[in-house]
């Protein structure tokens, strides 16, 4: 099967770039890994304790991860719980394959 020899459409490239940019930080990788492994919503305080990173830093990184929908926020009154967005994270290896021009199976959309 011949794959197209054209570059990705600009909008698609920008979406993938935002995902790669969101993961271009070791602390954000740690947070995504923690949430993915816990498979349960966590508060900022729990993430701070588990990661050893300060509260303001964790909050900053969670905001970035939520913007690209790797992390979902559940608001409960004045507190928030964060959980991994399984659908979005499962798309990521596919994103890397698409960028590299490899054929990929159909993947869920990151919503």
From TrEMBL:
Please give the InterPro entries that the UniProt record associates with this protein: ArsR-like_HTH, HTH_ArsR_DNA-bd_dom, Metal_resp_trans_reg, WH-like_DNA-bd_sf, WH_DNA-bd_sf
Pfam families referenced in this protein's UniProt entry, alphabetically: HTH_5 (PF01022)
Domain of life, source organism: Bacteria
Read off the SMART domains from this record.
Answer: HTH_ARSR
Q: Which GO terms describe its molecular function?
A: DNA binding; DNA-binding transcription factor activity
Alphabetically list the UniProt keywords.
Answer: DNA-binding, Transcription, Transcription regulation
Quote the CDD domains the UniProt record gives.
HTH_ARSR
The residue ranges of the HTH arsR-type domain are 8-104
Q: Which NCBIfam families match?
A: HTH_metalloreg
Supply the name of the protein. Answer: Transcriptional regulator
């Amino acid at each position: 099967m011949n794959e197209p020899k054209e570059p990705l459409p600009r909008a698609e490239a920008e979406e993938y770039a935002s995902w790669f940019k969101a993961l271009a930080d070791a602390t954000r990788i740690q947070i995504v890994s923690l949430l993915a492994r816990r498979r349960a919503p966590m508060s900022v305080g729990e993430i701070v304790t588990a990661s050893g990173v300060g509260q303001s830093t964790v909050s900053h990184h969670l905001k970035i991860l939520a913007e690209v929908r790797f992390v979902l926020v559940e608001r409960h009154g004045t507190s928030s719980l964060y959980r991994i967005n399984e659908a979005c994270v499962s798309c990521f290896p596919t994103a890397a394959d698409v960028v590299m021009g490899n054929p990929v199976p159909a993947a869920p959309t990151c919503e």
